[in-house]
Amino acid sequence: MVFLTKIIVFCMFATGPGILTHKSLVNKDQSHSKKVDDCQRCKVLTDSFKKWLEETSRGKHEGGDAAWEEAKLKSYARSEMRLVEIQENLCSELKRHQDECYALSEEAETLLEQWWFHEHQTSLDLYTWLCIENLQHCCSMNHYGELCIPCPHKVNNKICNGNGKCNGDGTRKGDGKCICKKGFTGTSCDECAANFYNASEECKPCHRACDGCHGEGEQSCMKCAKGWSKEFDTCIDDNECSDLSICKSNEYCINKIGSYDCKLCDKTCKTCDGPGPSSCTSCFSNQVLWQHLKKQE
Ligand SMILES: *[C@@H]1O[C@H](CO)[C@@H](O)[C@H](O)[C@H]1NC(C)=O
Fold first, then answer.
1. How far is the CA of 208 from the centre of ligand 1 (A)?
2. Where does the EGF-like domain start and stop, copy by copy (predicted)?
């Protein structure tokens, strides 16, 4: 009896199961890291220099004549010995961009020495002196491009209205145009982007039922999004599956919020109203659907 029920609910099949083919998953090489530009490279180098400057700042002399120690430390502070120590370690701590750091440290060796022995007394930090003024790879903050022009598009005294950044800021690249944060648009990022609405300080996303809106929720839509229809001033999800011909004949329909899916019937079914072999609504010509017994399962 159990045996009978089990067989009867399915479309009976003469052929065996199909051969499953496995798509080979090719792992794409993800090891290549993004190339850094010259300004970033210089920042990496000067950050590393700063780190080793701190590491070599010697609090470790213990005991002995305090005054003598102090004098010794003072002479060590800008000594060639300390510079050599820094240079020996420079870039060694880096996990990313290390090769670029080493390359630049070689290129800039003479400049680094010059700064160490002659320039450090001026108030300029190494980054400003090396990256901005000498190598000219970077600009100071809020400046961009080859000539380090001030970023335009200020609103309320804030660059890009405080809602974006100036393209190329701090580098010798870019065009100074605003790159707005998500939700903002306009040359100065002072407007809400499409499908966002102005909630005083912020631009918030419209409800998914909307194609443009003037406020929160599905009742504030200007138009309804695809898959939604206006009903009593609000947008309601369409049930696409009520159109019985929306999927192909060997598929069944699943309504989703804002859309729908067509899924293939089980391969034993000709047509179906759901997943699996027990949802067949008709069979292929040489098979029989035992629909009247379906409910017994
Ligand atoms: C939002 O509205 C306020 C008040 O009308 C206005 O001052 C502000 O500029 C608007 N913001 C955006 C991003 O449109």
1. 22
2. 156-190
Does residue 144 have a pLDDT over 80? Answer: yes
Distance in Å, CA 155 to ligand 1 centroid: 12
Q: How many helices (DSSP H) and strands (DSSP E) are in the chain?
A: 7, 16
For the CA of 198, the closest atom of ligand 1 is 1
Of 134, 77, 147, nearest to 108 by C-alpha is: 134
Distance 151 CA to ligand 1 centre (A): 22
Q: Considering only CA atoms, which residue is closest to atom 9 of ligand 1?
A: 190
| Residue 17 clears pLDDT 60, i.e. is over it | no
Task: Out of 158, 178, 188, 200, give the residue to mutate to test ligand 1, the one with the largest number of ligand atoms within 8 Å of its CB.
Answer: 200
**What is the three-class DSSP state of 153?**
coil
Ligand 1 shell residues, CB under 6 Å: 190-192, 198, 203
Decide if 114 contacts 147 (C-beta within 8 A).
no
- Determine the length of the chain: 297
On whether the CB atoms of residues 133 and 150 are closer than 8 A, the answer is no
Sequence-ordered list of residues with C-beta below 8 angstroms from that of 33, at least 6 positions apart, any chain = 96, 97
Tell me what pLDDT residue 11 has. Answer: 53
Q: Give the other-Cβ count within 10 Å of 257's Cβ.
A: 11
Ligand 1 atom 6: residue of nearest CA: 200
Give burial (CB, 10 Å; 0-12/13-18/19+) of 288.
exposed
- Residue located nearest, by CA, to atom 14 of ligand 1: 191
pTM of the model: 0.63
Q: What are phi and psi of 251, to 5 degrees?
A: -130, 160
Distance of CA 211 from the midpoint of ligand 1 (Å): 20
Distances (CA, A) of 182 to 12, 162, 175, 208, 217: 55, 12, 20, 16, 19
